[in-house]
């Protein structure tokens, strides 16, 4: 270990921009065992590892699996990585590591952080390729839990309950499991076979997966309360936010998940709705997070004439991954910073022709430490567009069965006990975006694990 002075940080190999924009294959070629060990050997094995203590919402055993893989002990590294995380090969691909574990790495100041995310993904990829398995006992308990929603929070909760031998039935309204992982993240970041493999593993461990089954429509929530010992709600946050501008419901104004979901459906063998065909069009995406980066990079691959991202803050204050931002630039996306949308412009025939924006600047930090936005008077100008994609965050849907069951919400978000994930109903737990609002897959995974542990404590205390 501690070879950071002799070995530089080396990202995994990725396809050239010219090659990768021609399709939706994953762009990174993650490490072989010979490549991953030297990168892990850079770790200095801090006495108080910030990567775990303050950088990782899951508190993963990062120094421990780095040490194991540095010593070429793949099995130990694999088991350690999968002990605290329900899907390390997924989070190793999609987490904004520069804001989390790698941002907290001691070597980030001067030497370049350990490539923690890429090593994490590589360990589990290599482990599965070598035939390693995650230990599940099978269903050994009499208790049963229903998990509603198969996104990161629900998948995490099911994983840890099954590790304890508790029967889990999962209800998912879509035709494919995975929630955001399946429909919201493009294949060039996360191959969907990786997501499907995780569900195959859980089904072999005893998970009963009910697809095309919407709670409140196909099954009654009250019936589930009678049938199961506990419920976990991983309902997500799927309602796209609108900027409250005239013409925002125009046919060429898309919500981010509408667009990404339509393209993903086509990539899965379906047909792309004609309205989502952006070939030869000028596409403008509003937003600065990872979902916005997914939209701009997808638009490039879909053959848009130009793709522009408009964001009201600057590059340093973008909430998304630095890696995704740089990938977008490499692929030909143009960024307009310090601009806020004011109106959507239509021509006399009702065709969308652009979006009027106002220049902004950053004011002093607010109570949360984030710098507020100030608009610059008389700075209006037009950004030309044939298609406008809104990536402004998400709101929780309004579920009528929640108040009927006496489950408290605030601004539609579920109110939970922070220590256990328990809602106001003693047998119903929740986590992820339905509680936090739109957030990260890793925080949803942490919520699902916390709730699973609390459910175990409640059901197995005797």
Q: What would your notes on this structure say?
A:
The protein contains 18 helices and 20 strands. The chain is α/β, with parallel strands linked by helices. Strands 5-4-3-6-20 form a 5-stranded parallel sheet, sandwiched between helices. A 5-stranded parallel sheet has the order 8-16-9-10-11. Helix 6 packs antiparallel against helix 8 and helix 9 runs parallel beside helix 18.
The radius of gyration over CA amounts to: 23 Å
Give the strand order of the largest sheet, numbering strands 1, 2, ... along the chain: 5-4-3-6-20
Give start-end ranges of low-pLDDT stretches: none
Q: How many strand elements?
A: 20
- Structural class given helices, strands, pairing? alpha/beta
What amount of the residues lies in strands?
Answer: 15-25%
First-last Cα distance: 45 Å
Question: Helix share of residues?
Answer: 25-40%
What is the helix tally? 18
Q: Please tell me the overall pLDDT.
A: 95
From the spread of the alpha carbons, the general shape counts as globular
What is the makeup of the main sheet? 5 strands, parallel
Concise synopsis of the structure shown:
With 462 residues, the protein is of the alpha/beta class.
Keywords:
5-stranded parallel β-sheet, 34% helix, 18 helices
Note the topology.
Elements: E1 13-14, H1 17-20, E2 28-29, H2 33-40, H3 50-53, H4 62-70, H5 74-84, H6 88-94, H7 101-104, H8 116-129, E3 144-148, H9 152-163, E4 167-171, H10 180-183, H11 192-205, E5 208-210, H12 221-227, E6 230-233, E7 239-240, E8 253-255, H13 256-267, E9 282-286, H14 290-301, E10 306-310, H15 322-330, E11 334-336, E12 339-346, E13 352-365, E14 371-375, E15 381-384, E16 387-390, E17 394-395, H16 401-404, E18 409-410, E19 413-414, E20 428-430, H17 433-436, H18 441-459
Parallel strand pairs: 3-4, 3-6, 4-5, 6-20, 8-16, 9-10, 9-16, 10-11
Antiparallel strand pairs: 1-2, 7-17, 12-13, 13-14, 13-15, 18-19
Helix pairs in contact: 2-4, 2-8, 4-5, 5-8, 6-8, 9-18, 13-14, 14-15
């Amino acid at each position: 270990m501690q070879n950071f002075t002799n070995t530089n940080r080396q990202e995994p190999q990725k396809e050239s921009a010219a090659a990768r924009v021609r399709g939706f294959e994953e762009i990174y070629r993650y490490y072989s065992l010979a490549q991953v060990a030297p990168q892990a050997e850079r770790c200095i094995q801090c006495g108080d590892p910030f990567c775990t203590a303050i950088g990782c919402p899951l508190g993963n055993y990062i120094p421990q699996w780095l040490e194991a893989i540095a010593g070429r002990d793949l099995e130990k590294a694999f088991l350690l990585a999968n002990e605290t995380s329900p899907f390390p090969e997924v989070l190793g691909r999609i987490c904004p590591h520069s804001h989390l574990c790698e941002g907290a790495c001691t070597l980030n100041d001067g030497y370049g952080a350990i490539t923690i995310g890429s090593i994490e993904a590589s360990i589990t990829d290599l482990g599965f390729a070598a035939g390693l398995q995650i230990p599940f006992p099978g269903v050994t308990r009499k208790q049963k839990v229903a998990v509603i929603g198969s996104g990161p929070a629900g998948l995490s909760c099911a994983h840890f309950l099954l590790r304890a031998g508790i029967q889990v039935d999962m209800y998912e309204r879509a035709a494919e499991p995975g929630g955001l992982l399946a429909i919201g993240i493009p294949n060039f970041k996360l191959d969907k076979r990786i997501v499907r493999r995780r569900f195959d593993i859980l089904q072999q461990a005893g998970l009963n997966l009910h697809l095309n089954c919407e709670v409140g429509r196909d099954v009654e929530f009250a019936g589930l309360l009678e049938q199961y010992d506990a419920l976990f709600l991983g309902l997500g946050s799927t309602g796209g936010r609108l900027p409250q501008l005239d013409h925002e419901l125009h046919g060429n104004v898309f919500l981010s998940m509408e667009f990404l979901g339509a393209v993903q459906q086509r990539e899965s063998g379906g047909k792309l709705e004609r309205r989502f065909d952006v070939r030869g069009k000028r596409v403008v995406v509003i937003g600065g997070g990872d979902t916005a980066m997914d939209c701009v990079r997808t638009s490039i691959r879909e053959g848009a004439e130009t793709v522009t991202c408009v964001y009201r803050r600057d590059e340093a204050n973008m909430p998304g991954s630095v890696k995704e931002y740089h990938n977008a630039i490499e692929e030909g996306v143009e960024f307009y910073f310090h601009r806020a949308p004011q109106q959507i412009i239509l021509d006399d025939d009702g065709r969308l022709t652009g979006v009027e924006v106002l220049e902004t600047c950053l004011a002093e930090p607010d109570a949360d430490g984030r710098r507020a936005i100030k608009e610059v008077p008389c700075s209006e100008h037009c950004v030309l567009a044939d298609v406008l994609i809104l990536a402004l965050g998400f709101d929780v849907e309004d579920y009528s069965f929640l108040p009927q069951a006496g489950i408290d919400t605030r601004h539609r978000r579920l109110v939970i006990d922070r220590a256990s994930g328990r809602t106001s109903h003693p047998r119903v737990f929740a986590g992820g975006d339905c509680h936090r609002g739109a957030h990260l897959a890793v925080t949803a995974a942490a919520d699902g694990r916390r709730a699973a542990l609390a459910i175990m404590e409640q059901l197995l205390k005797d």
